[in-house]
Amino acid sequence: MKENTRDKFIETASNLFGKKGYNATGLNEILAESGAPKGSLYYHFPKGKEQLALEALILAGNKITQSITSHIENIDNPIEAIIYNIENIADIIDKEHKTRDITISLIALETYLSSETLRKACEDLYQSLENIYADKLMKAGMSPEEAHEIGEVICAMMEGAITLSLTRQNGNPLRLIAKQIPNIVKI
């Protein structure tokens, strides 16, 4: 299937924002990496970089939520499912030292004060991630209130552990979280 110019821009921006961040990625770099004609950028994204970043966040968010969902949906026990997902992310960091399709924390940290549009998109994605965990916990009988609270705790711990793992260039901080999940999740 041939990738259209708009999709090329979004995929390229998503990759670059994930590697370098929002502020360190320029439109000229996105143009060069995508190989798309310069005039087409503002045709597809008349509001410029912020609009492109929003689309890139949506793409990254879809990939992240699909990945988590696919890792936990076939494991009935929510504790085992959550541990499996965390350990999978740790393995990716061990092998690839990358954030792509794992987190949006870099763009979230860079834009929360400068762009309400991007801050809100990040907030929505984090809420979606929390809901994936909460839904898994509720299916196992946890109350909605407790499940959502635990989902938020898991998401917050994982985002911090991803940052530590990338800094240390190994997934061990994530594995420590995985080890503690049975102490946090009581079903």
Give a short summary of the structure.
This protein has 187 residues and is mainly alpha-helical. It has nine helices and no strands. The longest helix has 25 residues, at 144-168.
- State the CATH architecture of the domain at 56-184: Orthogonal Bundle
Share in β-strands: under 5%
CA-based shape: elongated
Oligomeric assembly = single chain
The largest β sheet comes out as: none
Our measurement of the CA-to-CA distance between the termini, rounded to an integer number of angstroms, reads 45 Å
Q: Would you report the number of β strands?
A: 0
What is the CATH class designation of the domain at 56-184? Answer: Mainly Alpha
Mean pLDDT: 92
Secondary-structure element pattern, one letter each: HHHHHHHHH
Rounded radius of gyration (Å): 18 Å
What are the segments in which pLDDT stays under 50 over at least 5 consecutive residues? Answer: none
| DSSP helical segment count | 9
What is the fold-level CATH name, i.e. the topology of the domain at 56-184?
Tetracycline Repressor, domain 2
Helical percentage: over 70%
- Specify the structural class: mainly alpha
Name given to the CATH homologous superfamily of the domain at 56-184: Tetracycline Repressor, domain 2
Protein described:
Residues 26-45 bind DNA. GO terms for molecular function: DNA binding. It comes from Anaeromicropila herbilytica. This protein is mainly α and 187 residues long. The protein has a domain at 56-184: Orthogonal Bundle (Tetracycline Repressor, domain 2). The chain has nine helices and no strands. It has helices spanning 5-20, 27-34, 38-44, 49-72, 78-96, 105-111, 116-139, 144-168, 172-184. The longest helix has 25 residues, at 144-168. The N and C termini lie far apart (45 Å).
